[in-house]
């Protein structure tokens, strides 16, 4: 087992990855947009070639498509294929900061500039961790559509038979102006993983999730949690969505019901959160709108 100093040195050796950029192209195809719509219970036939998409849908395009031989045992692309080879085996989304300047249009090609923004080591109560921040710049017709800074947390693997460590529960706020309940069904989570080309096994392989990663069940996809929160909030939007920040605080489990809540919008802003079946805070989001 390496020492903490050796771990920090290994992360420091990855700093030459910071600033690296690659380009992911997407045609923003009609069939892809219709699959996303169907997954979100929107009539797929309502989308036509040339239509503008909802502003936050850019997160469901531009997947990293690895060869099957480049997929690791957890379902993620092997380290070093797309992302820095961080020497920790467990990876989960943690949060994001997004600014939105435009929208994607069906049939209008676009690109994602994927830039390694930061690789940061941490040693905390639950052990060694590393935070990878990716900056995704979405462009179409030479204009920036959105900038998305996404944080992924890498952690040590639990010992055999041990549960994966979690942060202590915190009660969700009780001042909601609205609340929607959504069943995180296996088909919903599977379809989201499919449209985003995410093969991480914790989202669909219960045996792997329990036996290898120490979770009590298959894990809800954090990207889908954010998507559902945005969809609920935008039904009450005071204007055009121009950005949001989000933080995932606690896992949700496939098969559970999540409650999507929000405060009343004020001064072009809205606070939203997600609570699990026990009333614990699982995610928090702050949205900004233009009139």
Just name the CATH architecture of the largest domain.
Answer: Roll
| Quaternary status | single chain
CATH class of the largest domain: Alpha Beta
Number of discrete domains:
2
Strand content: 25-35%
CATH fold description of the largest domain: Thiol Ester Dehydrase, Chain A
Number of strands: 10
Number of helices: 5
Distance from first to last alpha carbon: 55 Å
Class from helix and strand fractions:
alpha+beta
**The CATH fourth-level homologous superfamily of the largest domain:** Hotdog Thioesterase
Radius of gyration: 19 Å
- The side-by-side strand order for the widest beta sheet comes to 1-3-4-5-2-7-10-9-8-6
How would you describe the overall organization of this protein?
With 291 residues, this protein is an alpha+beta fold. The protein folds into 2 domains: 1-157, Thiol Ester Dehydrase, Chain A (Roll), CATH 3.10.129.10; 168-291, Thiol Ester Dehydrase, Chain A (Roll), CATH 3.10.129.10. It is 16% helix and 33% strand. The protein contains 5 helices and 10 strands. The chain has helices spanning 4-12, 30-39, 186-195, 206-211, 222-234, and strands at residues 21-26, 90-100, 110-124, 127-140, 143-155, 178-183, 240-248, 257-262, 269-275, 281-290. Strands 1-3-4-5-2-7-10-9-8-6 form a 10-stranded antiparallel sheet. Helix 2 runs antiparallel to helix 3 (186-195). The radius of gyration is 19 Å and the shape is globular. The termini are far apart. The model has no long low-confidence stretch (mean pLDDT 93).
């Amino acid at each position: 087992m390496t020492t903490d100093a050796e771990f920090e040195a290994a992360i420091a050796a990855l700093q030459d990855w910071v600033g690296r950029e690659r380009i992911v192209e997407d045609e923003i195809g009609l069939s892809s947009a219709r699959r996303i719509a169907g997954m979100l219970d929107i009539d797929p036939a309502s989308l036509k070639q040339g239509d503008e998409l909802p502003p936050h849908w850019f997160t469901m395009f531009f997947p990293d498509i690895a060869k099957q031989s480049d997929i690791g045992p957890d379902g993620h692309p092997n380290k070093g294929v797309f992302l820095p080879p961080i020497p920790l085996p467990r990876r989960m989304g943690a949060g994001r900061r997004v600014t939105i300047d435009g929208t994607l249009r069906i049939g209008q090609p676009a690109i994602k500039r994927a830039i390694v923004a930061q690789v940061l080591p941490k040693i905390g109560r639950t052990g060694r961790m590393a935070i990878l921040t990716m900056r995704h710049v979405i462009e179409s017709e030479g204009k920036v559509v959105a900038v998305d800074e996404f944080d992924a947390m890498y952690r040590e693997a639990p010992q055999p038979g041990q549960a994966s460590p979690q942060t202590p529960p915190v009660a969700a706020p009780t001042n909601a102006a609205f609340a929607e309940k959504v069943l995180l069904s296996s088909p919903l989570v599977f379809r989201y993983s499919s449209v985003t080309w995410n093969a991480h096994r914790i989202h669909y392989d219960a045996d792997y999730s329990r036996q290898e990663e120490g979770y009590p069940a298959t894990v809800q996809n954090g990207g889908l949690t954010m998507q559902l929160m945005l969809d609920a909030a935008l039904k009450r939007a005071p204007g055009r969505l121009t950005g949001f920040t989000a933080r995932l605080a606690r896992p949700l489990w496939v098969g559970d019901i999540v409650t999507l809540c929000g405060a009343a919008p004020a001064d072009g802003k809205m606070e939203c959160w997600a609570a699990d079946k026990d009333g614990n805070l699982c995610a928090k989001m702050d949205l900004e709108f233009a009139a």
